[in-house]
Amino acid sequence: MLTIALPKGALLRDSIQRFQAIGLDFSAFLDPQNRQLQIIDPTGTAKALLVRTHDVPVYVEYGQAQLGVVGYDVLLEKSPSVAHLSDLQFGQCRLSVAVPEASPYRRSIDLPPHSKVASKFVHCAQEHFRRLDLPVEIVPLYGSVELGPITGMSEAIVDLVSTGRTLKENGLIEIEVLFESTARLIAHPLSYRLNGDRLHHWLHCLRSLKT
Q: What pTM was computed for the model?
């Protein structure tokens, strides 16, 4: 049976709609009364796992799921050994550097050497400042990263931005975009090569959808 890892959070509804469009119904995950983390499509064709977005590539890489939907930001952060198949063109956001509005810095390169930068995207942040040849200390935070500058823990943050509302409400502004991110379809490399559970059929169906 085909197993698909679906991400909790912002990408879930669009992911479910995309699979519904090719005949696989996992909409039970959208029921607030449902507590199941694993459901089988009513046709008995496929099974879906509901996991944290950062765990999707882990389940796919280790072969517990043949397909998964995950943000491009997660792929760049974790660099998993998975087959990156296509851009699903939803879940648009960007990974950006932000600072307090009152900060004198308006570009990443303006930050003083050895500044503290809070982020849950530690690898991506490190790579960004490495390319600038600017030594900074990345402070790993996995909750409300905006609190870093607010409390004085950091001079800046690197975080995902969608509408920018959260930054604005916390007195922060974007000063640089690292990259744009959308939802991506990934597969277990061996499953993809062997075409187990008619994997190529489902991939063809997904790629045939109009976006």
A: 0.91
